[in-house]
């Protein structure tokens, strides 16, 4: 199927709402500042010229909203791709690095519903720094920086660097992440009543899943993803083995955190849902049947071992893996393919 001609219409992506989730192939400024989007539900391809991706830095979130940052003024907004609606946020005092990720979460862990006091959190994969602001304050609020300490990362022959969070998920107002210390989970709780948002850190031990392979050899997860699903914390693991100096996938699995026992419980049934995984630890949960996805499956669009625009589909119950992708060549990209997912139905963007 050939892609359509570029459509330069702010509402055009909203018109494709029935096709969400979308895998976006962004070509950047050249030659026509266009984006090809793939609906993984029906395999259709469309080409857009989205104003929100011209001269803006876009940080997609698992909650469906996108943080857009003006490249010149650093003025920020939260963009709902489904409706085109934008919520103004304050300008940043410096441009975020290219290694940043973004989450949106409620500030009160005792209230599972979303509200206008939600926090927008930007975390940098390359340095131990958090950047946050409240949606409630709109453009008159301010971004607050907060640093943290996860120790040092030392590799012989290379400069010593500070460790930073790589995997994080927002679950009922709490930001969970994997600590650098093995089998340790970090949890960041926000201050809802403080004049400025702040995060308090606590940690607890929870042994990461391992795979009993053969001859007494145990495989640790090579790749992990943290995400929220049904108001619970989930972990998806990929276990690779080395064969003739090449990594080969041996096994995969999904796990739910039992916060009472502080342990990961393997699950092969996530109900009528699908997980969507992407570069930089991006991980989201999405209703499956409603959006034409295979329920109980994990869509993995992060080819760290090659340069492919394909994605993998892991069936948790059947234990199978298949590869899918666009049915036409994709021109050179300005960044790795990324997800635009349905916006959480309870997200409130009113200030």
TrEMBL record:
Q: What is the lineage of its organism?
A: Eukaryota, Viridiplantae, Streptophyta, Embryophyta, Tracheophyta
Any Pfam family the entry gives: Beta-prop_KIB1-4
User: Which InterPro entries does its entry note?
Assistant: Gal_Oxase/kelch_b-propeller (IPR011043), KIB1-4_b-propeller (IPR005174)
**Protein name as annotated:** KIB1-4 beta-propeller domain-containing protein
Spans traversing the lipid bilayer: none
User: Which intervals hold domain KIB1-4 beta-propeller?
Assistant: 38-315
């Amino acid at each position: 199927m050939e892609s359509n001609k570029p459509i330069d219409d702010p509402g055009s992506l909203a018109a494709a709402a029935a096709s969400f989730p979308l895998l976006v192939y962004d070509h950047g400024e050249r030659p026509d500042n266009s984006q090809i989007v793939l609906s993984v539900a029906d395999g259709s391809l469309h080409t857009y010229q989205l104003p929100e991706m011209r001269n803006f830095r876009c940080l997609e979130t698992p909650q469906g909203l996108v943080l857009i940052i003006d490249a010149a003024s650093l003025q920020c907004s939260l963009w709902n791709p489904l409706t085109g609606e934008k919520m103004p946020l304050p300008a940043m005092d410096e441009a975020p690095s290219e290694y940043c990720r973004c989450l949106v979460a409620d500030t009160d862990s005792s209230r599972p519903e979303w509200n206008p006091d939600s926090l927008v959190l930007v975390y940098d994969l390359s340095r131990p720094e958090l950047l946050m602001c409240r949606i409630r304050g709109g453009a008159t609020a301010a971004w607050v920086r907060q640093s943290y300490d996860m120790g040092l990362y030392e590799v012989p022959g290379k400069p010593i660097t500070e460790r930073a969070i790589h995997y994080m998920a927002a679950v009922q107002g709490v930001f969970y992440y994997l600590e650098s210390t093995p089998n340790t989970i970090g949890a960041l709780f926000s201050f809802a009543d403080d004049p400025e948002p702040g995060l308090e850190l606590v940690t607890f031990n929870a042994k990461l899943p391992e795979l009993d392979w053969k001859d007494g050899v145990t495989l640790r997860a090579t790749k992990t993803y943290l995400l929220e699903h049904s108001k619970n914390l989930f972990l998806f693991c990929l276990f690779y083995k080395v064969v003739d100096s090449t990594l080969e996938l041996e096994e995969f699995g999904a796990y739910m955190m039992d916060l009472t026992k502080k342990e990961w419980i393997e699950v092969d049934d996530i109900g009528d849902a699908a997980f969507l995984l992407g570069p930089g630890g991006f991980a989201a949960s999405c209703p499956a049947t409603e959006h034409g996805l295979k329920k109980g499956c994990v869509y993995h669009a992060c080819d760290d071992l090659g340069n492919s625009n394909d994605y993998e589909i892991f069936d948790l119950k059947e234990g199978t893996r298949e590869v899918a992708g666009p049915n036409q060549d994709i021109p050179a990209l300005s960044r790795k393919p990324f997800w635009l997912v349905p916006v959480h139905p309870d997200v409130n963007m009113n200030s």
